[in-house]
Specification:
Elements (H helix, E strand, L loop, with lengths): L2 H13 L3 H11 L6 H14 L3 H14 L4 H13 L3 H14 L5 H12 L3 H14 L4 H14 L2 H14 L4 H13 L3 H14 L4 H13 L3 H14 L4 H14 L2 H14 L4 H13 L3 H14 L5 H14 L2 H9 L24 E5 L13 H7 L2 E6 L4 H5 L6 E4 L5 H4 L5 E4 L3 H4 L41 E5 L9 H7 L3 E6 L17 E3 L6 H9 L3 E5 L2 H8 L3 E6 L21 E5 L7 H25 L1
Parallel strand pairs: 1-2, 1-4, 2-3, 5-6, 5-8, 6-7, 8-9, 9-10
Helix pairs in contact: 1-2, 1-3, 2-3, 3-4, 3-5, 4-5, 5-6, 5-7, 6-7, 7-8, 7-9, 8-9, 9-10, 10-11, 11-12, 11-13, 12-13, 13-14, 13-15, 14-15, 15-16, 15-17, 16-17, 17-18, 17-19, 18-19, 19-20
Length: 627
Amino acid sequence: MNIAQVISAAEEHLAEGRDAAAEQLFTEALEQPAGAVRAMAGLGKIALRKGDTETAHKLFGHALTQEPENAGLLTGLAAVYLATERWEEAKACLQRAMRLDPALVDAPVGLTLLGLIRQDLEGARAAAKRSIEIAPDSTDALNALAQVEVVSGNIPTAIALLQQSLALDPRQVETLTTLGSLFLLTDEPARALDCLEAARLQEPDAPPVLARLAQCRAALNQLEEAGTLARQAATLAPADPEVRNIEGTVLLDRGCFAEALTALQAAAELDPQNPEPLVNLARLLRRRNEPEAALTAARQAVTLSNGAHELARRIEADLLCLSGDWREGWRSYDRLGRSDLLDASEAVPDLAIRDFGPRLALIVDDFSSTLLGLRLLPQVSREVERLRLLCLPVLASFFQAIPGIASVHAYQEITLSTDIEAGETALLLDDLPRLLRTEPRALPVEPLQLCLESVESDPEDSNDSRDQKDPAGDGPRIGLWWDNTPDGPDPQTLLTALSGRPVLLRECDDGQPLTLPDGQPPEILVPYSVEHLLDMAVALLSVDMVVTMDGPVAHLAANLGCKTLVLCQYDIPWYWQPCGPDEARWYPTAQAVGRNLDGSWSDAAEACVTFPRAAETGQEAGEEEDG
């Protein structure tokens, strides 16, 4: 081969990721003056891939002494400056390259990356769009714009751009890995798995690919395989903070606390400005029942993120409430999503119900919120002159059944300008506990009451269970409320484990009919298609005990004073637990059980057996005290 053919073959190897073969040919070409510059550029790219920035800098620098107007060499040198955090030198090289060759796509792609690094989102987007204008079918340009969209939070747009890039070249390992990560972010682990396995075929031992695969397997509840992949990735890249952080989180989910702690501590040391390892350390320490150490880690993450890390702030607030430090706990909740309230002195002031004014409008914006504020409705209705509820139409009948509410306004979409009356204070219902700095020990003892007689019923509703509970039959009537809860226990297992007379409060709509231990279908009190909150409440009140996953239905049952067994994921929220030294409870009639550390739900199944007996014993003890 002549020198031009040697260089072309070397560049093809380099583009295909065969660095060893490319390096050998570039080294041969380096001895020929006609190919020396291109050879130095190729060897510089290989050195940069290996992380040898010093060698890469020398090679690109020497090549530029021979061809100082070579725009391609300038972008190569800029890549070295980016890798060594010499931002101004990188910017100068890239801008000069664009002036020398306006059609070179590498220069605006590099400026996109520089803009993202320097948090200049507007500049990064402009550079990315310029790269697309120059080369609309360039994978580098598409990937650069996708990075901008990710940082901007436009995940669907980023996914579409990455898919477009992969259609041009399906062998891009980094692009496949990024796309897999985004599918994990959008809770699509099956699609993520396809991308990551395709990347693994290209590079079987790439630590980032293995680490993301571990995340994917964990999301699919394949925890043993996830642990193996995470350990393999960390063995190959022990100094990669992202890989070590993923290793720690996967091992945390497996319940391997000692290994997870080592990995997360290493990740935090390798990247001390990144809050993610500290957040995961806080999760780990909380799960190990080390609340003080967990709180310290969460607060460090909050500081590093300037208060912008929502999970860190939520963990901090949760731990403060669990410890009984309600004042600081609520102040921490004040600052969720409010990086402008870092200073405690700037937090929302403590309020009393009278501070809201005589007329109050409470807004329930959806049914996915916790409904913590329901506990305060009786007290609020007594202390304000006029209380009005604004909610979705399907929730209106429930709030109409609560005594003390002057009126209920149903809306499809609320706008403050049209729905809030003059002289009226408007608040979200679930903001009440935080604004009033409510403590569990100060809550009223009585549960939320409903006036069902005042609500018109549908005469055609054959599932209306507003009559008194049927006293016939053996054992308590236990209702299992199920609604396709993702990543939860098998409802059939729970239904089989329930003692007494189990019934379904809501039908599973997954195509798998549930049966009782005798093979008969269970009674269904509320069909799957029924979405009215009042129908839910009536069904809950018609049974002796309720078993359900953590969510709005659990809050509804506990607010109504139902004996409620709440099945939670690994970290049980504070409102289901005894809090502080006096072990005050937000919901006195509720009990929570968490998922097993190995990912199974055997403790939940066991609790379904023991909960009815424990609840009956507690009731008998309470009756004796009352007597």
